[in-house]
Amino acid sequence: MKGLVSRLGQVLGIVPADTASSDPFGTAQVWAAEAQDQNVWAALFDDRDFWGLEDEDERDNAPLTPFAACQSMTWYDDDFVECGWSAHHGPAREIFVGNSFVDQWGAEFDRRAVARGVTANAFVMVFSQGGTLPGWFTSPRDAEVGGVRLVYLGVLTVQ
Protein backbone atom coordinates (compact mmCIF):
# COMPACT_ATOMS: atom_id res chain seq x y z
CA MET A 1 0.00 0.00 0.00
CA LYS A 2 2.96 2.29 -0.50
CA GLY A 3 0.97 4.55 -2.82
CA LEU A 4 -1.21 5.89 -0.02
CA VAL A 5 -0.13 9.16 1.46
CA SER A 6 1.60 8.47 4.73
CA ARG A 7 -0.90 10.44 6.82
CA LEU A 8 -3.78 8.29 5.60
CA GLY A 9 -1.73 5.12 5.94
CA GLN A 10 -0.81 6.02 9.48
CA VAL A 11 -4.45 6.65 10.41
CA LEU A 12 -5.36 3.22 9.04
CA GLY A 13 -2.28 1.68 10.64
CA ILE A 14 -1.03 0.45 7.27
CA VAL A 15 1.88 2.56 6.05
CA PRO A 16 4.74 4.09 8.02
CA ALA A 17 5.51 7.67 6.98
CA ASP A 18 8.84 6.78 5.36
CA THR A 19 7.38 4.22 2.91
CA ALA A 20 4.83 6.33 1.02
CA SER A 21 5.53 6.39 -2.70
CA SER A 22 6.67 9.58 -4.37
CA ASP A 23 7.43 8.10 -7.80
CA PRO A 24 5.83 9.97 -10.71
CA PHE A 25 3.25 7.97 -12.64
CA GLY A 26 2.27 10.49 -15.32
CA THR A 27 -1.49 10.69 -15.75
CA ALA A 28 -3.94 10.73 -12.85
CA GLN A 29 -7.69 10.76 -12.40
CA VAL A 30 -8.37 13.36 -9.72
CA TRP A 31 -11.13 13.99 -7.19
CA ALA A 32 -11.38 17.02 -4.92
CA ALA A 33 -13.10 16.29 -1.64
CA GLU A 34 -14.69 17.90 1.36
CA ALA A 35 -14.28 15.60 4.37
CA GLN A 36 -15.67 16.29 7.83
CA ASP A 37 -12.62 14.94 9.63
CA GLN A 38 -9.59 12.71 9.21
CA ASN A 39 -11.29 9.58 10.53
CA VAL A 40 -14.19 9.94 8.09
CA TRP A 41 -11.66 10.48 5.29
CA ALA A 42 -9.58 7.45 6.27
CA ALA A 43 -12.69 5.25 6.48
CA LEU A 44 -13.28 5.89 2.78
CA PHE A 45 -10.13 3.86 2.00
CA ASP A 46 -10.40 1.26 4.74
CA ASP A 47 -10.20 -2.24 3.23
CA ARG A 48 -10.48 -4.28 6.44
CA ASP A 49 -14.09 -5.35 5.74
CA PHE A 50 -13.04 -6.62 2.30
CA TRP A 51 -10.11 -8.65 3.64
CA GLY A 52 -12.30 -9.88 6.49
CA LEU A 53 -14.50 -11.78 4.03
CA GLU A 54 -13.49 -15.41 4.28
CA ASP A 55 -15.37 -16.61 1.21
CA GLU A 56 -13.31 -15.83 -1.91
CA ASP A 57 -16.42 -15.88 -4.12
CA GLU A 58 -18.00 -13.24 -1.90
CA ARG A 59 -14.77 -11.19 -2.03
CA ASP A 60 -14.75 -11.40 -5.87
CA ASN A 61 -17.92 -9.30 -5.95
CA ALA A 62 -17.31 -7.05 -2.96
CA PRO A 63 -15.81 -3.57 -3.30
CA LEU A 64 -12.30 -3.21 -1.89
CA THR A 65 -13.18 0.02 -0.05
CA PRO A 66 -16.09 2.46 0.28
CA PHE A 67 -14.23 4.61 -2.28
CA ALA A 68 -14.33 1.72 -4.77
CA ALA A 69 -18.03 1.17 -4.04
CA CYS A 70 -18.99 4.82 -4.64
CA GLN A 71 -17.19 4.64 -8.00
CA SER A 72 -18.97 1.36 -8.94
CA MET A 73 -15.69 -0.54 -8.85
CA THR A 74 -14.83 -3.67 -6.95
CA TRP A 75 -11.05 -3.44 -7.16
CA TYR A 76 -8.27 -0.94 -7.76
CA ASP A 77 -4.55 -1.17 -7.21
CA ASP A 78 -3.93 1.04 -4.21
CA ASP A 79 -0.22 1.18 -5.06
CA PHE A 80 -1.27 3.72 -7.70
CA VAL A 81 -3.47 5.85 -5.42
CA GLU A 82 -2.37 8.95 -3.60
CA CYS A 83 -4.67 10.88 -1.36
CA GLY A 84 -4.39 13.58 1.22
CA TRP A 85 -6.46 15.30 3.87
CA SER A 86 -6.03 18.58 5.72
CA ALA A 87 -7.83 20.06 8.70
CA HIS A 88 -7.76 23.34 6.76
CA HIS A 89 -9.21 24.57 3.50
CA GLY A 90 -7.07 26.60 1.14
CA PRO A 91 -4.80 26.40 -1.89
CA ALA A 92 -3.63 22.84 -2.57
CA ARG A 93 0.03 23.86 -2.60
CA GLU A 94 -0.38 25.14 0.96
CA ILE A 95 -2.60 22.51 2.58
CA PHE A 96 -1.18 19.42 0.85
CA VAL A 97 2.49 20.22 1.43
CA GLY A 98 4.37 16.94 1.46
CA ASN A 99 2.17 15.25 -1.11
CA SER A 100 3.81 14.07 -4.31
CA PHE A 101 4.39 16.80 -6.86
CA VAL A 102 1.73 19.17 -5.45
CA ASP A 103 3.74 22.04 -6.92
CA GLN A 104 2.95 20.60 -10.37
CA TRP A 105 -0.75 19.85 -9.99
CA GLY A 106 -1.89 22.17 -7.19
CA ALA A 107 -2.78 25.26 -9.25
CA GLU A 108 -4.79 23.30 -11.83
CA PHE A 109 -6.48 21.30 -9.05
CA ASP A 110 -7.51 24.56 -7.36
CA ARG A 111 -8.79 26.04 -10.63
CA ARG A 112 -10.94 22.98 -11.37
CA ALA A 113 -12.19 22.66 -7.79
CA VAL A 114 -13.30 26.32 -7.72
CA ALA A 115 -15.03 25.86 -11.09
CA ARG A 116 -16.94 22.90 -9.64
CA GLY A 117 -17.82 24.73 -6.40
CA VAL A 118 -15.66 22.62 -4.10
CA THR A 119 -13.86 24.01 -1.08
CA ALA A 120 -11.49 21.05 -0.91
CA ASN A 121 -9.64 19.85 2.14
CA ALA A 122 -8.86 16.44 0.63
CA PHE A 123 -7.98 14.84 -2.69
CA VAL A 124 -7.65 11.48 -4.42
CA MET A 125 -5.40 10.76 -7.40
CA VAL A 126 -5.44 7.43 -9.23
CA PHE A 127 -2.29 7.28 -11.34
CA SER A 128 -1.84 5.49 -14.63
CA GLN A 129 0.46 5.54 -17.60
CA GLY A 130 -1.91 6.07 -20.49
CA GLY A 131 -4.97 4.85 -18.59
CA THR A 132 -4.06 1.20 -19.00
CA LEU A 133 -3.59 -0.03 -15.45
CA PRO A 134 -6.24 -2.35 -14.00
CA GLY A 135 -6.88 0.21 -11.25
CA TRP A 136 -7.94 2.96 -13.68
CA PHE A 137 -11.53 3.90 -12.90
CA THR A 138 -13.79 3.29 -15.90
CA SER A 139 -16.62 5.67 -14.91
CA PRO A 140 -15.28 8.19 -12.41
CA ARG A 141 -18.00 10.31 -10.82
CA ASP A 142 -19.00 12.67 -8.09
CA ALA A 143 -20.23 10.96 -4.93
CA GLU A 144 -21.21 11.55 -1.34
CA VAL A 145 -20.35 8.78 1.08
CA GLY A 146 -19.87 8.60 4.84
CA GLY A 147 -19.40 12.33 5.44
CA VAL A 148 -17.22 12.88 2.37
CA ARG A 149 -18.21 14.80 -0.76
CA LEU A 150 -16.10 13.71 -3.76
CA VAL A 151 -16.08 15.78 -6.94
CA TYR A 152 -14.38 14.34 -10.00
CA LEU A 153 -12.09 16.94 -11.60
CA GLY A 154 -10.92 14.89 -14.57
CA VAL A 155 -7.43 13.86 -15.58
CA LEU A 156 -4.23 15.74 -14.72
CA THR A 157 -0.69 15.05 -15.87
CA VAL A 158 2.20 15.03 -13.44
CA GLN A 159 5.66 15.32 -15.03
How many distinct helices?
7
Cα-atom radius of gyration: 15 Å
Cα shape = globular
Number of domains: 1
Order of helices and strands: HEHHHHEHHEEE
Averaging pLDDT over every residue, what do you get? 83
Strands ordered across the widest β-sheet: 2-3-1-5-4
Largest sheet: 5 strands, antiparallel
- Which range best describes the helical content: under 10%, 10-25%, 25-40%, 40-55%, 55-70% or over 70%? 25-40%
Strand content: 15-25%
Q: Which spans have pLDDT < 50 for at least 5 consecutive residues?
A: 1-24
In angstroms, what separates the terminal alpha carbons? 22 Å
Helix/strand-derived category reads alpha+beta
Q: Would you count the extended β strands for me?
A: 5
Q: Could you characterize what this model shows?
A:
There is one protein chain. The protein has 159 residues and is α+β, with helices and mostly antiparallel strands. It has helices at residues 6-12, 38-43, 48-52, 56-60, 66-70, 92-95, 102-115, and strands spanning 27-35, 81-85, 122-128, 143-145, 148-157. The two termini are 22 Å apart. It has one domain (6-157). Strands 2-3-1-5-4 form a 5-stranded antiparallel beta sheet. The chain is 29% helix and 21% strand.
How is the secondary structure organized here?
Blueprint lengths: L5 H7 L14 E9 L2 H6 L4 H5 L3 H5 L5 H5 L10 E5 L6 H4 L6 H14 L6 E7 L14 E3 L2 E10 L2
Antiparallel strand pairs: 1-3, 1-5, 2-3, 4-5
Quick overview:
This protein is an alpha+beta fold and 159 residues long.
Task: Kindly list the characteristics that best describe this protein.
5 strands; 5-stranded antiparallel sheet; 159 residues; single chain; 29% helix; alpha+beta; globular
